[in-house]
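Kindly go through the entry underneath: sequence plus fold tokens. Please state briefly how this chain folds according to its tokens.
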Amino acid sequence: MGPVPASNRRRAVPWAVLALWIAVIALAGPFAGKLGDVPRDNVVD
């Protein structure tokens, strides 16, 4: 396999960034759900 043409690389970069963000959101989702389980401190609030 030879080098990838610049036009194909330029087209692939936004998709790679989008895939990275989707992976970050998918991995952070369970942790965000746990934030709702944190008890509130009525003395401070």
Observations:
- DSSP finds one helix and no strands in the chain.
- The helical segments are 6-35.
- The mean pLDDT is 82.
- Residues 7-31 form one domain.
